[in-house]
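Researcher: Structure prediction, please.
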Amino acid sequence: MNKIVNLHVIDPKNIGDRLSSPLQYFNFPGFDTQALDIRTISPEAFESSPLQNSSIIIGGGVYSINVFKAILKILIIINNLENLEN
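Model: Predicted structure follows.
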């Protein structure tokens, strides 16, 4: 089955973070969905992460520029890994 992963900061003490995931407001028929805290994803853990073979929604909260840069670096590394396999 197809999978959608929403990467964003999930801080239970922050109301904006708790309510910002689009997975809470929209149905995605035919897809398994999962929200992941962006702070828990690392390039080293990609092989075992739910991001593998998933569509990714980034955001649902405001990021600092440093967090946004880190997200982009991870996605570039993921993209390069996938290109190496093809």
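Model: DSSP finds two helices and three strands in the chain.
Researcher: Thanks, that helps.
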